[in-house]
Specification:
342 residues; mainly alpha; globular
């Protein structure tokens, strides 16, 4: 049922984006909501069982005290028997719901889109929403906050940006890195003296990615969790890394070509942000886990584009529809559900 609703919802919403058929859109919205209802009640699979012990018996960890306190508040009396999957699912649902709320607020802030059923549906249809609620909970809480904090810093709300940044850091220690990787390309785009040097979007992320890889190989930096530096490309139970890498390579090249075929000035900043971060992502070939985590960040940036399909030319709408279909076929989605169906 999860597979059917996931696939049909994407197919129908893509059709609506291209042809603007409203009743198809409403069927798609109903299906994606049904899909998430089934996801909410299914037994934990893939990485979620790891959270069972942590949520049942939360341990206060440096740099992640925010997640500890969040779990403590949400638990209430759920975990008299914390091995009870029903109780686990209740607390897990609260966390997943918070991730989706933060994602919607993040997209609204960056794109200035209204919070309505269309925006919420795009978020639910995104592969980012699925991965962050089914695989990377702490990162799912942190990434929207990193972008919100960066946006506030760059647009003269530094105090609120600092407060949001502290909250984001409390959920995941890698917050500063993602904050920086949002701010750099946006700063270049909004700075009239730098934005004219278009090669910065190509050269900077490529050489920066190579430099980070060298530093990680030789252990010169340790601001990222240790698992990020794992260079074993054949991790058991995970999507084979080379399949994932070439899927992202195909996805990026094909969608970038589609999105940039006709210039839309209002999307220049988001397209630059997307290009910058995907180029950096592709340099992480030596670090599969870092690649996978950073890939989720790039998927979040993709939502900024898809959410603006309205009132754009037909070619842009076709690009958005194509992205939705590719999201639907993501190997990570099927791999995560493999434990549920096996």
């Amino acid at each position: 049922m999860i597979l059917a609703t996931w696939f049909l919802s994407h197919l129908l919403y893509s059709t609506h984006i291209i042809f603007n058929i409203k009743f198809i859109k409403y069927i798609s919205i109903a299906l994606i909501f049904i899909c998430y209802i089934f996801l909410a009640v299914k037994p934990p699979t893939f990485d979620l069982p790891v959270y069972l012990d942590f949520i049942g018996n939360p341990q206060k960890e440096i740099f992640e005290f925010g997640f500890y306190y969040l779990v403590t508040v949400l638990n209430f009396n759920n975990f008299n028997n914390f091995n009870n999957f029903n109780n686990f699912n209740i607390t897990l649902f609260y966390i997943q719901f918070l991730i989706l709320i933060l994602t919607v607020l993040c997209v609204k802030l960056v794109t200035a889109e209204k919070v309505n059923i269309d925006l919420i549906s795009i978020v639910l249809l995104s592969i980012y929403a699925f991965l962050s609620t089914q695989n990377s909970l702490r990162q799912g809480l942190m990434l929207p906050l990193a972008i919100i904090s960066g946006y506030l810093f760059l647009y003269n709300n530094k105090f609120y940006g600092f407060i949001v940044g502290l909250i984001g850091l409390s959920f995941h220690k890698s917050f500063p890195f993602f904050f920086i990787m949002f701010c750099i390309p946006v700063f270049i785009s909004i700075n009239s003296n730098l934005s004219k040097f278009k090669y910065l979007y190509y050269i900077f992320p490529f050489f920066f990615g190579c430099l980070i890889s060298i530093f990680l190989v030789y252990g010169f930096i340790d601001f990222l969790p240790e698992i990020y530096t794992n260079n074993n490309i054949y991790q058991e139970e995970r999507t084979p890394f080379l399949i994932k890498y070439f899927f992202i390579l195909f996805f990026f090249i094909s969608t970038h070509f589609l999105f940039t075929k006709e210039k839309i000035n209002s999307l220049r900043l988001i397209l630059n942000l997307r290009f910058f971060n995907y180029i950096f992502l592709l340099t992480l070939i030596l670090f599969p886990e870092f690649f996978s985590r950073y890939m989720i960040f790039c998927y979040l940036i993709d939502i900024f584009l898809i959410s603006q399909y309205k009132n754009k030319n037909k070619f842009f709408r076709l690009s958005c529809a194509t992205t939705l279909i590719i999201w639907c076929l993501s190997p990570q989605f099927y791999n995560i559900l493999n434990g549920f169906y096996s």
